[in-house]
Amino acid sequence: ARKSLVNVFQDGICHPKMAMVIDDRLKVWDDRDQPRVHVVPAFAPYYAPQAE
């Protein structure tokens, strides 16, 4: 099953059209929600050994 804003806002607190999604994967979202997905790079822990 794909992610859906309708499932996120089941209790009616916010209309799905008023939402913006920040995710690193566009294709996991329902087709009608994809225009509201702002794709960002996947999380990568910052590691700087010289800082220790």
TrEMBL record:
Its EC number is 3.1.3.16. It catalyses: O-phospho-L-seryl-[protein] + H2O = L-seryl-[protein] + phosphate; O-phospho-L-threonyl-[protein] + H2O = L-threonyl-[protein] + phosphate. It is an enzyme of class 3 (hydrolase). It is found in: Nucleus. Keywords: Hydrolase, Nucleus. The keyword Transferase does not apply. The keyword Electron transport does not apply. GO terms for cellular component: nucleus. One of its GO terms (molecular function) is RNA polymerase II CTD heptapeptide repeat phosphatase activity. InterPro entries: Fcp1. This is protein-serine/threonine phosphatase. It comes from Nymphaea colorata (pocket water lily).
